Amino acid sequence: MDNQTVLAALRERFAAEILAVNEFRGDLSLTFTPKGYLAAAQFLRDDPDLAYTFLENLCGVDYLGRKPRFEVVAHLTSMRHRHRVCLKVGCDEPEPTVPSLTPLFPTANYQERETFDLLGIRFDGHPSLTRILLPDDWVGHPLRKDHPLGDEEIAFTFNQERIYARKPFVRE
Amino acid sequence: MGIEEKAGNLGIVTTTLETVVNWGRTNAMWPLLFGLACCAIEMMGAQASNYDLSRFGMELNRASPRQADLMIVAGRVSRKMAPVVRRLYDQMPEPKWVIAMGDCAACGGIFNNYAIVQGVDEVVPVDVYVAGCPPRPEALIDGIMMLHQKVMREKISGKKESPIRIDQPLVQVK
Amino acid sequence: MTEPITVPTPQQIIEPAVAGRTETMVLNMGPHHPSTHGVLRLVLELDGEVVVNVAPDVGYLHTGIEKTMESKTYQKAVVLTDRMDYLAPLSNNLCYALAVEKLLDVEIPERAQIARVLLTELQRISSHLVWLGTHALDLAAMSVFLYAFREREQILDIFELVSGARMMTSYFRIGGLAYDLPSDFIPTVEQFLAVMPSRIDEYEDLLTANPLWLERTVGVGVIDAQSAIALGLTGANLRATGVAYDVRKAMPYSGYETYSFEIPVGKNGDIYDRYRVRIAEMRQSVKIVQQATERLRELGPGPVVTSNRKVAPPPKREITESMESLIHHFKLWTEGFKPPRGDAYVSIESPRGILGCYVVSDGSPKPWRVHFRAPSFINLQSLAHMAKGRMVADLVALIASLDPVLGEVDR
C-alpha cells in the first residue's frame, strides 16, 4: 500500500469532493468538503482492501487570516498495510461545524471534544459535545489565535514590589 | 492549642512545653498524599528506599486530609484544580503546614499561561518553597528539614511568624 | 464486539440521578484519591458494589502546553514537551524532535541515533518500573514498589550522568542531542545491564504466579481486539488483546529496523496479560539497550548534532575562526531556524502507547500549531467499556493497568 494506490482509490470515488492533494515529506494529505470527509473516512474504513480501521489522530488548526479559518485534521492508519493517510476538512466562522467521525470511529469521541473545547469547532453527530479539559463554565476557546496566552508579567527585583502588591496571595 | 495558650507565659515551664510540642510535631509529620504532576514522581522517589522519608517519620502518606498535617503541593495547579486544593487544605485540621514543591507550585514555573495558577500561594498559604523542576529528592528533604526548623521556632501563642525575606542579594558583587 | 461502544460523560451519569433515578448510586472518585495515577476524577454509577457505568472527568491538570509552545521558538519548546508524559520525558522529546526534523528534512548522525534508541529504551524500562510499582501498590503488593524504585534510581543516575537532570532532561534536541555522551556512559550502562534481567526475574517471582495477584487480575477488565482498535487503545493494552502492532516495527524511526527484538503479545486482553506484556517489554528493552551499547562502542566518538548549520549551532570554538559560523550562531540564537511551510505528523511507541506529534509550520521561527496525540487521553475512553459489570476494586486495578499519566491526558 502506498500513497498512489490510496489516492487513486479515493479519486475514483470522490473526485468531486477532493479540494486539494498534498504529498509532503512522504505523507499524503487530502482536503475534502465536509460531505466528502465523512464519506471518505467511511470508505477507507470499510473497504476490505484498504482497511484504514484505526483513527490515529484528530485535531483542529486555527489558520487565522485564511478562508476557511479552521481546519480539522484526521490521520487514519491501516494496521494491516502499515500506512497512514491524512484527511483534512475546512470550516469557517461564525459557527465552524464539521461532521463527526465518532459514529464511525468511537476513538474520535474525546479528541473531538477536545477540539471543540480548545478551538470552538462543533461536530455534527457527536453524542455528547461538551468541554473536556477546561472547567465547564470557562468562557472562550484558548487555542484560537485571537485568544491571549494569559501570561503574567515576570517578576524581577526591579518590579517585584509592584507585581506582588497586586497578586492575590493567601495569608491564612 | 488549648491549655498551653491558657497557661500564658509561665517562663521556663512554657518554653519547655513549646520545645516538646514542636519536637513531637516535627518528628511525626504525616504528609497528605497529594501529588499532582511530575514532582509527585520525585516525591515518590523520596518516599522510596533510596532517599527514605520514613526516617523522618513521614512514611505514612494519608489519603484523607482529616488525618494529615503536611500538604506537599507537588506539581502544577491548574485553574480547574485550584478549588479542590483549597478544599483539601480547609479539611486539614490545625496544626497544618504547606510545602510548595517545585517551580510550578512556587510560582507557576515554566507555564506562564491561562491554565496554571501562578504559584499555589494564591490558593493556600505556603510555609516552605522548594525550587527545582522537579526538585531532587534531596532538595525535597532539605525543604522538609527547613520546615522542621521553622516548626521548632513556633511559639505557643499560635501566631505564625512572618516570612523571612531576603532583601539583599545572596552574592555580594563588589 | 457484542454491545455498542459508548464513552459516557459525567453529565450523562449525574443528570438522571439528580432527576430522580434511585436504582443505582452515583459516587465520585474525586481528583484526589489514594492512587498515584494523578488527578483523575471518575464518576461512577454503582449498583451496590458493581460498576454499571463509569465516566472519567479529566482536565484537572490542563496546562495549556500546546498554546504555550506556539509562543516559543521550536528549540525552546522542547522543554515543554518533557512535562507532558512525565514518566517518559525522553519519549516526548523524541517525538517532537522527530516531527520537526521531518519538517526540516535534516540528517541525524549515527551516534545520535544510537544514543536516542538507547536512552529511549532505558526510559521505557524506567516508566514500566513506575507502572509496576504503582500497580502493585494499588493492589497492596507494597514491596514491589520499593524494589522497582531501586532499579529506577539506577536509571535516573544514568540520565543525570548524561544530561544533568534526573527526569526532565530535554536531552533530545531538534538536530540531535543536547550534549555529547560522557566518557563513562558505556561502563555505567553496562553496570546497569549486568543487574537488570535478574531484577525483572525478581519481580516476576513475586507476582506472576502469586495466587492473590492472579485472583485480582486474570479475567478482569477484558477487551477484545476489535473494540480496542475502534476505541483507539494502543500500546501494551492493545498488544495484550492479541494485536501485534508496535510502531517500532510497523513504521520504524531512529533506526529501530536495524535492532533485533520481539513484540510480546497477549491473548485475553485482561489485566494479567497487560502485566505479562509489559514485563516482557522490559526484557526486550534490555536486549535493545545491549545491542545499542555494543554499537556505540564499535562506532566510537563522533558528531551528535546534524551538520546542517541552519538548524544546529556550530561548535563554539569555530565562532572565533569562521565568519559563517558566527552568523549561523547569531541567527540561531536571535531568531531560531525557520522550517518550510507545511505540516508533519510523526508517531512513536511511547511506554503508554502511540504518541504522535503533529506540527504545522508557517515559515516563521515559532510553530504555528503543535498537537500531541496523547495515548493516555485516548486509552481512557475504553475505561467504561472494560469496567462494566466489575466491582470498584477491579476498577482500581483496571486504571493502573491502563497506565495513564495525567500530564499527558490533560496537556
From TrEMBL, chain A:
Catalytic reaction annotation: a quinone + NADH + 5 H(+)(in) = a quinol + NAD(+) + 4 H(+)(out)
Organism domain of life: Bacteria
GO cellular component: plasma membrane
Main subcellular location of this protein, as a coarse class: membrane
Compartment(s): Cell membrane
Chloroplast keyword on record: no
Topology relative to the membrane: Peripheral membrane protein
NADH:ubiquinone oxidoreductase 30kDa subunit domain span: 31-152
This enzyme's EC code(s): 7.1.1.-
Alphabetical UniProt keywords: Cell membrane, Membrane, NAD, Quinone, Translocase, Transport, Ubiquinone
Single GO term (MF): quinone binding
UniProt enzyme class: translocase
InterPro entries attached to this UniProt entry: NADH_DH_suC (IPR010218), NADH_quin_OxRdtase_su_C/D-like (IPR037232), NADH_UbQ_OxRdtase_30kDa_su (IPR001268)
Physiological role: NDH-1 shuttles electrons from NADH, via FMN and iron-sulfur (Fe-S) centers, to quinones in the respiratory chain. The immediate electron acceptor for the enzyme in this species is believed to be ubiquinone. Couples the redox reaction to proton translocation (for every two electrons transferred, four hydrogen ions are translocated across the cytoplasmic membrane), and thus conserves the redox energy in a proton gradient.
Family statement: Belongs to the complex I 30 kDa subunit family.
PANTHER family: NADH DEHYDROGENASE [UBIQUINONE] IRON-SULFUR PROTEIN 3, MITOCHONDRIAL, NADH DEHYDROGENASE UBIQUINONE IRON-SULFUR PROTEIN 3
HAMAP family with a match to the protein in the record: NDH1_NuoC (MF_01357)
Oligomeric form and interacting partners: NDH-1 is composed of 14 different subunits. Subunits NuoB, C, D, E, F, and G constitute the peripheral sector of the complex.
Protein name: NADH-quinone oxidoreductase subunit C
Organism placement in taxonomy: Bacteria, Bacillati, Chloroflexota, Chloroflexia, Chloroflexales
